[in-house]
Design brief:
single chain; about 260 residues; Rossmann fold; binds NADP nicotinamide-adenine-dinucleotide phosphate
Length: about 260
């Protein structure tokens, strides 16, 4: 049996698609025949052939409106929306270091970008009676790390609950809504962090990785996930092969979360 995902002719919008997980999702959907548009604040020096780019800050309402309008104008509609964008710029220092502006920034990027883009693009999906929305959350929504990511983890928890509620509302109208919850992923940024930690501790790259894994309480698999592994899961969930899947969360963390 072939495992063709059958994405030819599907129109996909992927946020945060120039680095890390998002870049792998863009390349994977494209390889499988989808027409792909992606967005980031700055465009890559070497854009992927055949991928449409729009530069915008989706941490703002205006940026989200620009992305949604451009996607509708250039693609004529969106069949797959993969909300990958997310991350944290909060300082260390626990709850006391998180002022209102930091909370707002973390919520805008990790929750509101998806809320705003979904709201703009769902009407077209509902009118066609078909579509897929994927929200990339994080295991931190059940395993928060209080030193610097309380606001990020709380925003991802809100994203997860929002995603579940949305799935209940729009799945009967033909739109599947699914969550993907990664643990540590070995992106370019993660490699740089492991290298920095390794230098500070006077060890090698594997030693740097071990420091990060220890901070997570260990990864039973013994390694982070690769961006391509997360992208493969997302591409499957976006395809009609996953046509009976909606309203659920897929954890990809090598066993990091110690329960469930
Ligand atoms: N990496 C991990 O270990 C890990 C673990 C759990 C969950 N996740 C989640 O997985 C998703 C992807 O993470 P990642 O580590 O692969 O990301 P990443 O490597 O940091 O890449 C982030 C992407 O988003 C874009 N971006 C960032 N801020 C933006 C903004 N305000 N407006 C528009 N685009 C923006 C970046 O481009 P520009 O900088 O040019 O804007 C880039 O393309 C996130 O939701 C993250 O929370 C990651």
């Amino acid at each position: 049996m072939s495992f063709d995902l059958g994405l030819a002719g599907w129109r996909a919008l992927v946020t945060g698609g120039t680095k890390g997980v998002g870049a792998a999702v863009v390349a994977t959907l494209r390889r499988n025949g989808a027409t792909v548009m992606t967005t980031a604040r700055s465009l890559p020096p070497a854009p992927e052939d055949g991928v449409l780019y729009v530069a915008a800050d989706v941490g703002t309402a205006e940026g989200c409106a620009t992305v949604a309008q451009t996607a509708l104008a250039r693609l004529g509609g969106v069949d797959i929306l993969v909300n990958v964008v997310g991350g944290s710029t909060a300082p260390g220092g626990g709850y006391a270091a998180l002022d209102d502006a930091t909370w707002a920034a973390e919520l805008n990027l990790n929750l509101m970008a998806a809320v705003r883009l979904d709201r703009a693009l769902l009407p077209g999906m509902i009118a066609r009676g078909a579509g897929v929305i994927i929200h990339v959350t994080s295991i931190q929504h059940v395993l928060p790390l209080p030193e610097s990511t309380t606001a990020y983890a709380a925003a991802k928890a809100a994203l997860s609950t929002y995603s579940k509620s949305l799935s209940k509302e729009v799945t009967p109208q033909g739109v599947r809504v699914v969550r993907v919850s990664p643990g540590w992923v070995e992106t370019e940024a993660a490699v740089a962090l492991a290298q920095r930690l390794a230098e500070n501790a006077g060890t090698d790259y594997e030693g740097g990785k071990a420091i990060i894994m220890r901070s997570l309480g260990g990864i039973p698999l013994g390694r982070p996930a690769k961006p391509q592994e997360v992208a493969d899961l997302i591409a499957f969930l976006a395809s009609s092969r996953a046509g009976a899947i909606s309203g659920t969360e897929y954890v990809i963390d090598g066993g990091t979360v110690p329960t469930a």
